[in-house]
Design goal:
It contains 5 helices and 5 strands; from the N terminus they run βαβαβαβαβα. The chain is of the alpha/beta class. It has a 5-stranded parallel β-sheet, sandwiched between helices.
């Protein structure tokens, strides 16, 4: 319990996010895939507790990765879509119930939502 998979082709962003999670939520384990194609076998194993997926990626966009994750049995409430797009665009493409949340990854106010999710996952992983 406590495994996070980040699927995003932005290496600087993924490294920043991994460092942040490791520093503030040490119980959680973070794995990064900068290639969405390489993420598919990891997702299909079924041992990912939280999937953070970028919407804008080459070859497979975030929409296709989310659909794949749901097809192989991942609970939609364990998927967060990150993007540089505005909220209206994201909510149009990922309506309520499609995933746990959609967020602009560069908007600092969104960090509070991620912190709530990470904190909850850490409590579960630590058995509290």
């Amino acid at each position: 319990m406590g495994k996070i998979l980040i699927v995003d082709d932005d290496k600087a962003f993924t490294q920043f996010l991994k460092r942040y999670i490791n520093q503030h939520y040490p119980v959680l384990k973070v794995q990064i895939c900068t290639s969405p194609v390489r993420a598919l076998p990891i997702i299909s194993k079924g041992d990912v507790d939280l999937l953070l997926v970028d919407y804008e990626m080459p070859v497979l966009d975030g929409d296709k990765v989310v659909k794949y994750a749901c097809e192989v049995g991942m609970d939609k409430s364990r998927i967060i879509v990150l993007s540089s797009r505005d909220a209206d665009f994201l909510h149009e493409h990922f309506p309520l119930g499609t995933c746990l949340a959609v967020m602009n990854k560069y908007e600092t106010r969104q960090k509070a939502v991620l912190d709530m999710v990470f904190s909850s996952l850490q409590r579960k992983a630590a058995g509290r």
